[in-house]
Q: What sequence folds into this?
């Protein structure tokens, strides 16, 4: 969960906006997110995200890929930006992952468009890397996660 602020004018404009909601809907999910947070407890949520973020980074490394973030103190425990090999367009990974495995990933924007993918979880990532021509050893990411957890 992140902190989001909007003035009344922005909230009103969001009601009639026709654009696709990519990350969240202003009205529907805040209460549900807070209910889940209070049920699990903030300390437990932070610990879980820390553990799974580290597991995701280990799996990325085990697949032979690089984390875009260069210093450990800059790592996020909720999203991992992965450098995509130069012969692969990250848009192909995202499109294939959605169509074939029903998994939604994010893309790098602006200067890193086509060069990054954003992982919130690792389900299906090894298979889609194989599908777009990256020579990943299937099971390497999962093995790294299992060894860590």
A:
């Amino acid at each position: 969960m992140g902190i989001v602020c909007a003035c009344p004018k922005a909230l009103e404009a969001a009601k009639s906006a026709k654009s696709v909601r990519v990350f969240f809907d202003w009205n529907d999910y805040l209460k549900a997110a807070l209910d889940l947070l209070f049920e699990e407890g903030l300390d437990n949520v932070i610990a879980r995200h820390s553990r799974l973020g580290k597991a995701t980074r280990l799996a990325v490394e085990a697949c032979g890929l690089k984390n875009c973030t260069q210093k450990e103190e800059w790592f996020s425990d909720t999203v991992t930006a992965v450098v995509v090999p130069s012969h692969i367009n990250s848009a192909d990974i995202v499109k294939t992952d959605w169509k074939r495995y029903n998994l939604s990933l994010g893309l790098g924007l602006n200067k890193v468009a086509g060069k990054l993918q954003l992982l919130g979880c690792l389900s299906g990532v090894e298979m889609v890397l194989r599908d777009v021509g990256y020579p990943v050893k299937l099971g390497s990411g999962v093995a790294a996660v299992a060894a860590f957890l």
The radius of gyration is 17 Å. The chain has a mean pLDDT of 82. The chain has six helices and four strands.
